[in-house]
Give the backbone structure.
Amino acid sequence: MSHDLVLENGEIVFPGQTIRRGSVAVKGGKIAAILDRGEVCNAARVIDCTDRWILPGVIDPHTHIGFGDKENDWATETATAALGGVTGLMSFWRHDDLGASTGPWIAAGEARAETDFGLHFGVTSRRHVAELGELSKRFGVTSIKVYLMYKGATGAAKGFTEVDDALLFSALQAGAKVKGGVVGVHCENTEVIPVFRDPLKAAGRDDLAAWDEQSPGFLETENVFRVAFFGEKAGCDVNIVHMSAVESLDLVRRLRHKDRPKINVETCIHYLSLTRDSPLGPIGKVNPPLRPQSDIDGLWEGVRAGDIQTIGSDHVPRKVSTKGPDIWSATAGFPGIAQVLPVLIEEGYHKRQIPIERLAATISCNVADLYSLPGKGRIAPGYDADFAIVDPAGQTSVAADAYPSFSDYSPYAGRTYRGAITHTILRGTVVVDDGWLSPEPAAPGRYMHRAP
């Protein structure tokens, strides 16, 4: 049989399982066969993967497309993602009227995206909860997010007046009725933050560490308990998104039980590589805040042990001009989608000797399993031919102007990571070739409609 593409003689990384030398044959956008070392087959194109890893394409579970240049984000941010080995992403979609707005937003993505994509619904009102069952079926969205940081005055400042514990619990009840449903929650007790913030501002503090001190890790942990406890009572699986504090992970370990709804944990690459002491100033402002090195080390042990299921970027493509003039007025969040693999390889594989197959699981099959993404996240016959090919002996040096992102800065700028993404392949189409975006547009990104 002749194939469209063969990835030849590489180290095939089966996420969560093992590594095996061999080749992968692709036909019609799907993985057709896994070939043993030395096995030969005909193909229209052969990519020599000797001494390179063949990984499943990255699926970033946590992005914010449309938060930069809404008209163009689908194009610029997915092209940036592809350079980082990303073949799929999940983005949060918030709107007062989800029913009227979601269809056009999906259509915009299908017209311009260069990776596949799916959505999480942002739930900020009782109307959203009431409509969730119908909207989930119509648009194939099985995951939602509740923002506990938008309670009270903090939420009112952004126009959200209905975020409270009743909304959280009712969202969990509604999520439990969605097949494959999972409710992600931003855990941060904003009602206590002024106790710490006001004295810091009065003292004239304007450093990155002050952002951590105004919302210390235990304010996340307190909310984690509430979410897990409510999830158990509502019978709904939960996902603690962008976990930043090791104390929160310790609590989850104690609360997990085989006979209770699942408590999933996601962290992000900045909580695994950047600290409150990083010389970033306001560009390092993010919610929850960057923490001390001890939290980074503890979260990495959670990755090693499998206590953290997924890792994302929390990519927000804004301009550096929005990050100031001081820590208090700067916008929160920063770009990072192209650095997911480089950070995991450098900080996880090289510095901490975490097996690459363990790391790969957090950005591929675990994401696909959690969010019911059919045909994604694994290297096996019948699955979509999505790959990131990595040269472990290469290097990745981060510069903001190396990517087409709307954002013009990076908190990772100036860093050099061991490992280089040489090729990104989306459903059998080579979208990044020898480290460069292909001159022809990729096979258009597809919306990942979920119907478990």
User: Anything to note?
Assistant: The mean pLDDT is 96. The chain is about 30% helix and 25% strand.
